[in-house]
Amino acid sequence: MNVAVVILNWNGKALLKQFLPQVIAFSKEATIYVADNASTDDSVAFISETFPEVNVIQNTTNGGYAKGYNDALKQLQEDIFVLLNSDVLVTKNWLTPIIKGFEKNSNIVAAQPKILDYNRKEYFEYAGAAGGFIDLFGYPYCRGRIFDTLEKDIGQYNDTRPIFWASGACLFIRNKAFQEAGGFDEDYFAHQEEIDLCWRLQNKGKQIYYFGTSTVYHVGGATLKNSNPKKTFLNFRNTLLSLLKNASGSKVYFILFFRLILDALAAFQFLLKGKFNHIFALLKAHISFYSLFFKFLTKRKIHASKQHYYHKKSIVWLYFVLNKKHFNDL
């Protein structure tokens, strides 16, 4: 089984210098690529001069995570793609357990390892932790991370099990499944496009897995920090788009209406914290969602199914009202 580790880069020379040597050292069974999103720094020259064993794919535009990977992966023939953020520290044998899992179970089409925080290595990292889920209203959460609560890793998620979505920070996916699904939806640009892709794969009856026997460490926020209003815009808008596109049944319109109420509460919380830029970002997210509504309604006819998608009805209720902060307490 041929494996390609593909790192998407945009003006990330410092991150490549820091993390690419470990990828090279611990990925002998894979071919390594850096897909450059039309960087304006000297990233490409740096890679060619310093790491000649790494293959460079040069995209003509910066289309974000979604288009960047779509353009790059069209050019590759390997059986398994490993989409790896440039700010991830890999560990010895990180590929082996997951590749073996793919070989043993042909219905597994996507997966992720345990993702820990690079800066606090005993804690799970926000973007993926020990595997992702969503609730009825589309809020994503993880084993090891619910909203801003990060669990300490004490071996509680050292298992191997199905999950709903695998993190785009370190996403293993079959080439065939990726291409048959049409790749990432480029209307997302960045953030939560992996949730949409995994949801579409789930709707086709495929399986997404977490392998706690493989570990990586993610810096997180290297491209957009949580404090950036653009991230607020993308996260709120893209959640609404995913619900409209993928959620089953006529209840989706009730779910979207209820999300409006929950998002209004989120705006009020931003107001209390004085985060006025985030209020405008949330408002902008809804305006963008409405502008894409009919386009995604057309996509819904293709992708929505009756597949049960949520693990819990309301993670908001469980977390904020019932004070359930850890996944195993839900």
Description of the molecule:
This protein has 330 residues and is α/β, with parallel strands linked by helices. Helix content is 39%, strand content 21%. The protein folds into two domains: 3-218, Spore Coat Polysaccharide Biosynthesis Protein SpsA, Chain A, CATH 3.90.550.10; 229-329, no CATH class. Helix 7 (229-246) runs parallel beside helix 9 (276-291) and helix 8 runs antiparallel to helix 9 (276-291). The strands form three sheets. Strands 1, 2, 3, 4, 5, 6, 11, 12 and 13 form a nine-stranded mixed β-sheet that branches. Strands 7-8 form a two-stranded antiparallel ribbon. It has a two-stranded antiparallel ribbon with strand order 9-10. It is built from eleven helices and 13 strands.
CATH architecture of the largest domain: Alpha-Beta Complex
And the CATH topology of the largest domain? Spore Coat Polysaccharide Biosynthesis Protein SpsA, Chain A
Low-confidence spans: none
Cα shape: globular
Pairing-aware structural class of the strands and helices?
Answer: alpha/beta
- How is the biggest beta sheet arranged? 9 strands, mixed
Helical stretch count? 11
User: How many distinct beta strands?
Assistant: 13
CATH class of the largest domain: Alpha Beta
pLDDT averaged residue by residue: 95
